[in-house]
Amino acid sequence: MFNKLLKYIKSVLIDPHCLACGAALEIDEKVVCNQCKNTTIADLFSSPMLKYKGNIVEQRLMGLALFETAASLMPFEENTLSQQLIHDLKYNNYQAIGSLLGEAIATQIKQNNRYPQIDYIVPLPLHPKRIAQRGYNQSELIAAEVARQLNIPLEITNLYRKRNNESQTLKSAEERIKNVKDLFELHNPTLFENKTILLIDDVLTTGSTIISCCEALYKSNNIKIHIYTASVADVI
Ligand SMILES: [Zn+2]
């Protein structure tokens, strides 16, 4: 464990290497080298299957949540670069990955005419206890970069998580739905009234957490919700 930590500190802080090809990073490069950013990463983020009307993210949420559009940056696949990006962002304190993902999401939103004027960027909230353990909310890191790039306010206080629910893995579909029921709440529903928000999360699996989040958001009258996740996993 300690050796792993030392290796991580060396690889990221002292002697940073490209997460994709392993080459030493130049001073102006973050997470990946410029060459990989323009090739491997550009390919990974490019799948039209995850962006356009009727894409697989929308199919997964259709009929379960009320939303305007839903999209994802990349497919989440085990033992690939996508898993490493999400894993290092979530568990290894590699916060610069949040900027890489957020910058790409912002670029895709700018280039896609499906998006109207957005009023607030809202990350999927973690419970304060989880934030205390991890030190940050990984979805907020992504959302903060989207907000910065698009020059739209980041709103992180209105929507909150009521319970620190355990991991969703290994639960049946029925248990998962029960586990996320009334999981989120709004401090002030009027803040999001008549507003268009972009909800950001790191990984979409079954979608049950996002669905629960949308239920809380719909306590604001005439809210319009767009959803963008950094990755989408196949669900067995
Ligand atoms: Zn590289």
Report the C-alpha radius of gyration, rounded: 18 Å
Helix share bin: 40-55%
Shape: globular
* CATH domain topology of the largest domain: Rossmann fold
The proportion of strand residues reads: 15-25%
Spatial strand arrangement across the major sheet: 1-6-5-2
Written overview of the protein:
By secondary structure, the protein is an alpha/beta fold. It has 2 domains: 44 residues, no CATH class; 181 residues, Rossmann fold (3-Layer(aba) Sandwich). The chain is built from 9 helices and 6 strands; from the N terminus they run αααβααβααβαββαβ. The chain has a 4-stranded parallel β-sheet. Strands 3-4 form a two-stranded antiparallel ribbon. Helix 9 links the parallel strand 5 and strand 6. The two termini are 32 Å apart. The model has no long low-confidence stretch (mean pLDDT 91). Bound molecules: zinc ion. Zinc ion binds next to helix 2.
